[in-house]
Amino acid sequence: MAKYRRERINDEFRNEIAIILREVKDPRVAKAFVSVTAAEVTPDLKFAKVYYSSLMGDKKEVKRGLISSAGFIRGQIAKRMNLRVTPEISFVEDGSIEYGAKISKILEGITITDPDGEDETDGEN
To answer: What is the pLDDT of residues 78-122, one digit of tens each?
Structure first.
């Protein structure tokens, strides 16, 4: 399969799963504000890794909720996407959003000082 086609499938898969997750009625998923950051489908379309992050809720419970709703999600993908084979979905937690927020908070706390310690008005007159 051409690389560009697989990238298009990955993008479409990610978009569809993000929409479907809004329809999941499992409270572990619905209340956790789960966002899909990426999706990778294997070249043979048999397996897919979905990378997600959640803003609220216990991380383990969110993962259990996603695993328990994987059948529903896969069924919805089969209805919405025109693929020869509907991939089996596995969920992988993506910590990049939390890591980015942590780095941002660290950067906000940095104060810039003059390394020489001199006042800028003490120049030549």
So the answer is: 999 888 889 999 999 988 777 888 898 888 888 777 777 655 554
CA triple 28-37-12, angle to 5 deg: 105
Determine the angle formed by the axes of helices 70-80 and 3-21, rounding to 10 degrees. 120
Q: Quick count: other Cβ atoms within 10 Å of Cβ 13?
A: 24
CA distance 40 to 50: 7
Domain annotation for the chain: domains and CATH numbers: 3-97 (3.30.300.20)
Amino acid identity, position 13: F
Residue 97 burial (CB count, 10 A)? 14
